[in-house]
Design brief:
single chain; 4-stranded antiparallel β-sheet; 2 domains; 7-stranded antiparallel β-sheet; disordered N terminus; Rieske Iron-sulfur Protein; about 20% strand; Naphthalene 1,2-dioxygenase Alpha Subunit, Chain A, domain 1; iron; alpha+beta
Length: about 425
């Protein structure tokens, strides 16, 4: 049984110097395990700024997929708080990330979200950088000017089997390499880097980014809210309370999982769960699970959305490989397509959710797939989740709100997210 939450008085962050940090430390210290966070974590702009400082500027953040920048000179820009990051593929096909700021007088270099360029040219005074970030032209600067002292500032970047992560910290968390090594066997067979982007959709949620992530980390709400998504999900695949009323269904589902995983493992597809969402700095979770009915893909009829399968696959029924990373992403890898989600905080009450669907690079739209069918499930689910997040944001703004208990059967991964968040915020405050 969950402990009964202690009735805690609402907390207001103090404007005096040091007051916000002191109050944040108090809120973190008194967080009740197994319960949702107190209202200021979702409402306070001061805590939002602390989130940017201690979470989004210190950890590995998922921002894009490699197929968004397939050729030399292709670029994307990503904004995280006040930081704009330029990601570009260089002439040697390597991915590089830079602060999207000219070394002359600070102009933004690339204003578009996506495009292609030969060199990186500042629109203000035409200072020019190559695709490795080296300053190669700066007119009228005199004979004593040293170009080599004015290259673009680099941002740490890692590509994990087609997934692009950046870290804004001077010294990024070192455990990413271990996570990557463990995840590569799971992700590599899908060959995401050899895909193309079939669709990308951005939605703006009027809610705090943590509510977006908490909502993703459970399917307690799925029945009744996600009819399109649950078509392909087994009823007992997203948690059920043990007991006589559920015993037969749970046992049947566990047997289906065991049989499916044995078959996939024999095919060279790792499937067993790895779960370290709250026990390491770069928290992650993965598992390949069977899909219900036709069992091929997350579509309205559970059949593949794209006739041309990924990688070297010849088998359609490969389940759904889920990969979650703290603090801001989740991904679903199937036999025919990959769908990735990136969560970017904009303010205490506004969050950007960017969803990207990828198919085999040789798949032909209108022949092998249609965008409407490919995106139908998650477009519907994202819109439903947006509404739920916004209802939650409105609720936590009420003076009547107090942290409520999580279900131990269906919301354990929400607790893992909140535990990770609290631990990382405490570490950030300690290091400040």
């Amino acid at each position: 049984m969950s402990a009964t939450p202690t009735a805690t008085a609402p907390v207001t962050l103090h404007p005096r110097a040091g007051g916000a940090a002191d109050t944040l430390a108090l809120l973190l210290e008194r967080r009740l395990p197994g319960h949702s966070l107190e209202a200021p974590f979702y409402m306070s702009e001061e805590i939002f700024r602390a989130d940017l400082a201690h979470i989004f500027r210190r950890h590995w953040i998922f921002v894009a997929v490699a197929p968004q920048v397939p050729e030399p000179g292709d670029f994307i820009t990503v904004d995280v708080g006040g930081d704009s990051v330029l990601i570009v593929r260089d002439d040697d096909m390597a991915l590089r990330a830079f602060h999207n700021v000219c070394r002359h007088r600070g102009s933004k270099l690339c204003d578009a979200h996506q495009g292609s360029l030969g060199n990186i040219v500042c629109p203000y005074h035409q200072w020019t950088y190559d695709l490795e970030g080296k300053l190669i032209h700066a007119d009228h600067m005199g004979e004593t000017f040293l170009r080599e002292q004015h290259h673009l500032h680099k941002v740490h970047l890692r590509e994990l089997e087609g997934l692009i992560f950046i870290c804004l910290a001077d010294a990024p968390p070192t455990d990413f390499e271990e996570v990557a090594a463990r995840m590569r066997p799971y992700l590599a067979p899908h060959k995401l880097a050899e895909c193309k982007v079939a669709a990308q959709v951005e939605i703006l949620e009027q809610g705090n980014w943590k509510l977006t992530m908490e909502n993703n980390r459970e399917c307690y709400h799925c029945v009744g809210n996600h009819p399109e998504l649950t078509v392909s999900l087994y009823e007992h695949g997203f948690g059920a309370q043990p007991g006589p009323q559920n015993a037969e269904g749970i046992a049947r589902f566990e047997q289906i999982v065991a049989d499916s995983c044995a078959r996939w493992e024999a095919m060279g597809l790792p499937s067993v769960r790895m779960e370290e969402l709250d026990t390491r700095v770069t928290g992650f979770r993965t598992q390949r699970l069977p899909l219900d009915r036709a069992g091929e893909s997350q579509t309205l009829d559970t059949q593949v959305a794209c006739k041309k399968l990924l990688g070297d696959f010849t088998e359609k029924s490969l389940g759904g490989l889920s990969f979650w990373t703290q603090p801001n992403s989740w991904h679903h890898f199937m036999s025919d397509h990959v769908v990735s989600f990136s969560v970017i905080p904009l303010s205490a009450g506004r969050t950007l959710v960017r969803t990207t669907w990828c198919v085999h690079k040789d798949a032909v739209e209108g022949v092998d797939y249609t965008v409407e069918n490919l995106t139908a499930v998650w477009n519907a689910t994202n819109d439903q989740d947006r509404r739920l997040v916004e209802l939650s944001q409105a609720g936590v703004a009420s003076p009547a709100y107090r942290p409520g208990p999580y279900s131990p059967f269906t919301e354990g991964l929400v607790e893992a997210f909140c535990t990770w968040y609290v631990d990382r915020m405490r570490a950030g405050l300690s290091a400040a």
